[in-house]
Design goal:
The protein is an alpha/beta fold. Helices cover about 30% and strands about 25% of the residues. Strands 1, 10, 11, 12, 13, 14, 15, 16 and 17 form a nine-stranded mixed β-sheet that branches. Strand 7, helix 7 and strand 8 form a beta-alpha-beta unit. The radius of gyration is 22 Å and the shape is globular. The structure holds pyridoxal-5'-phosphate. Pyridoxal-5'-phosphate binds next to loops.
Length: about 375
């Protein structure tokens, strides 16, 4: 099949660019002796998780129990749920996953740890645990220092939980400019101190897990980190480029769209809006929603559910006709993937793979 035969809107994955992205990060992790547990929330496709494992990943990361269930199909020896698992329904499902592969949960409360321990005891399974610390994002994670050590000690005393170390998500570090590099320095001092406190307290630091895509290639500068969990790197997107962690030709995913209206001079409407691209803004806060590869300078400035508004007045190419097709690099590919049932692997104009996005919509 050729790209021209695909109906729109549709996500296209350039398989050669994806493969280069996968290899770049696998090589980086190997070179710096970092464990790589890629976050599969970006692609949500077991075949791609399998590819990450074949390239040397020690396991896979998920956010949701439903994603963990789907990723069992990769045959992974290890799954990290980098999200507190709260509530009996999820725990009942997670113990079934834990019967099939090793499962580690990153959590930040004794409530979560006790629930996990009770579920493990009842099901006669064991879970690994990473205690989560907040290094600046202000999302999940207890404060580093005494609070984290106390949580670690509490977890270490609970039956059928195996404390492996601690985890954090440096999502507050976006652009790797001078400020970003200063943040990496601060993070490094913080993590180094935390490792020391764990050792003094007799707590394990077998795993010190951090790493997002924007800060990816600076991970080896964070003293004490021995594991990274990037997700977006497999495809990259406009935000990754904006952060300086990728270049435009590292963006493997584009959203193929058709021009459905060119009625308004200087503007066009494409057949995808917020239900195709997601409404995530550019990391800088700018309210534009993607880059139209065929029309540099165009502004994708507004969306309704099924309409994308493109202002062409400053674009290099302006003479689009109804029926023309364009490829748009989205701001945030992870959310876009969750909106599509199938995506297409392409090489040049040929469609070489069709993947079902098996973990899309697995929010529980
Ligand atoms: C806990 C956690 N780990 C890892 C990642 C992967 O980071 P990125 O999307 O920058 O690749 C995320 C992303 O949201 C995350 O929330």
């Amino acid at each position: 099949m050729r790209i021209s035969e695909i109906d729109t809107p549709a996500i296209l994955i350039d398989v050669d660019v994806m493969e280069a992205n996968l290899n770049r990060v696998a090589n980086y992790a190997r070179e710096h002796e970092l464990r790589l547990r890629p976050h599969t929330k970006t692609h949500k496709i077991p075949a791609l998780g399998r590819r990450q494992l074949d390239l040397g990943a020690v396991g896979l990361t998920v956010a949701k129990t439903g994603e963990a269930e789907v990723m069992l199909a990769t045959g992974t020896p290890d799954l990290l749920v980098a999200y507190p698992v709260i509530g009996q329904k999820k725990l009942d499902r997670l113990v079934e996953v834990a019967r099939k592969t090793r499962v580690t949960v990153a959590l930040d409360s004794l409530v979560a740890a006790s629930q996990l321990s009770d579920a493990a005891r009842q099901a006669q399974v064991e879970f690994g645990v990473l205690v989560e610390t907040d290094v600046g994002l202000g999302r999940v994670g207890v404060a580093p220092g005494d609070e984290l050590v106390a949580l670690g000690k509490g977890v270490a005393n609970l039956p059928r939980l195996d404390l492996e170390g601690f985890s954090f998500y440096p999502g507050h570090i976006k652009a790797m400019d001078e400020l970003g590099e200063a943040e990496i320095g601060k993070l490094s001092a913080l993590v180094e101190r935390t490792v020391h406190q764990f050792r003094v307290a007799g707590l394990p630091v077998r795993v010190v897990s951090g790493g997002s895509t924007p800060a990816l290639f600076h991970s080896h500068l964070v003293a004490g980190v021995n594991e990274i969990r990037p997700g977006t790197y497999i495809f990259n997107d406009r935000n990754t480029v904006e952060c300086g962690a990728a270049q435009w030709d590292h963006c493997a995913a584009t959203i193929l769209s058709t021009v459905v209206s060119a009625a308004r001079p200087g503007h066009m409407i494409i057949d995808g809006g917020s239900k195709t691209f997601s409404t995530d803004r550019l990391v800088t806060g700018e309210a534009t929603f993607g880059v139209v590869r065929e029309a540099p300078g165009a502004l994708f400035h507004k969306m309704n559910e099924e309409h994308g508004y493109i202002d062409l007045r400053r674009a290099d190419k302006q003479d689009f006709q109804v029926g023309d097709r364009v490829r748009v690099i989205p701001n945030h590919i992870c959310v876009a993937m969750n909106l599509h049932e199938r995506v297409f692997g392409v090489r040049g104009n040929e469609v070489v793979e069709t993947w079902t996005v098996a973990a899309r919509g697995k929010l529980q």
